[in-house]
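Propose amino acids for all 208 sites.
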């Protein structure tokens, strides 16, 4: 079992996750061309690559391999990044999903550190556990990416270890090389506690 070609809109107070479409290409290009200093370990397309980037994700979505989203900043209406469900793993029966990964995530520099990432992860985790009924959600990053690892831990994911030579490196100058990947997860038994903690955190940020 794979993903449906497009997921539902996932709406929060600061971010709205809209099923990715070609109408998001211009906003993604503008978001990607802000300060790119934090993208060393992350695959973020250049402006000239955006059309192919969107088309590639849409093709994989049609094949049931991922559910891509544009991240839209609710107060301004601006597209500020991208994220996806990916790596669907069905139950042995083939009915329903037992696990998914949240990946292909990046945010414009202006949206980093604003709470958008936390709320987006909350919306994705809630959908995966409460609607799809998965047993596990994976989150992975380059093992050297301390900033990304800290952000994943802040949403309540547990560090499980490092997979060596697991995925292509996106670091300039390392083309064709493999990176070590830090693996984090949230499992269904933890989700009620993690959900409550995220909701408290989001409520506090709304009041401040």
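Proposal:
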């Amino acid at each position: 079992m794979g993903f449906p070609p497009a997921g539902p809109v996932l709406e929060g107070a600061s971010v709205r996750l809209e099923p990715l479409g070609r109408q998001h290409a211009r906003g993604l290009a503008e978001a990607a061309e802000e300060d790119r200093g934090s993208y060393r370990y992350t695959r973020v397309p250049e402006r000239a690559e955006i059309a192919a980037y969107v088309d590639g994700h849409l093709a994989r979505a049609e094949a049931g391999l991922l559910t891509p989203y544009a991240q839209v900043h609710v107060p301004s209406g601006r597209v500020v990044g991208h994220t996806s469900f990916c790596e669907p793993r069905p139950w042995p029966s083939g009915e329903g999903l037992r696990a998914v990964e949240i990946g292909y995530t990046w945010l414009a520099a202006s949206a980093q550190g604003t709470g958008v990432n936390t709320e987006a992860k909350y919306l994705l985790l809630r959908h995966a556990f409460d609607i799809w009924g998965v047993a596990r959600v994976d989150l992975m990053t380059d093992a050297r990416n301390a900033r990304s690892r800290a952000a994943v831990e802040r949403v309540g994911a547990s560090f499980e270890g490092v997979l060596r030579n697991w995925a292509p490196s996106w670091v300039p100058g390392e083309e064709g090389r493999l990176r070590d990947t830090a693996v984090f997860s949230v499992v269904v038994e933890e989700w009620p506690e993690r959900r409550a903690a995220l909701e408290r955190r989001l409520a506090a940020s709304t009041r401040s």
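The longest helix spans residues 116-132. The mean pLDDT is 94.
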